[in-house]
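Researcher: Please translate sequence to structure tokens.
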Amino acid sequence: MAAQQKSEREQVTAMAAPMLDVQSFLAANQKAGERFTSGALDFSNEMMRFAGNRLRRDVDTWQALCACKTPADMVDVEFGYARAMLDDYLKEASKLMDMATKVGTDSLSVFDEHARGVLGR
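Model: Translation complete:
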């Protein structure tokens, strides 16, 4: 019985040993951090691109408003601006959600890959 327990203990130790490899865990953590940082930079660049585009459209709208001859023209410009703004923000929100999901998935997949490598799967 004692020999069998020792054998089971040895088996558990052998299975746990790769998971206790601090070097490989730190390497995986670094890789995940690099993926997250790269994704966060892409996310930030996208927000800056969007803000710049929106600012240009705001200026264009002000110019169009200044060129209006009648109140009806102004209403048309404002309505077009509101419709385009709503469409832009909805599309951008969807795009940013997709990007954020990808950043999280890509970053966390490193740990899944690490665990599978440790467990030999």
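Researcher: Any highlights?
Model: The CA atoms of residues 82 and 88 lie 10 Å apart.
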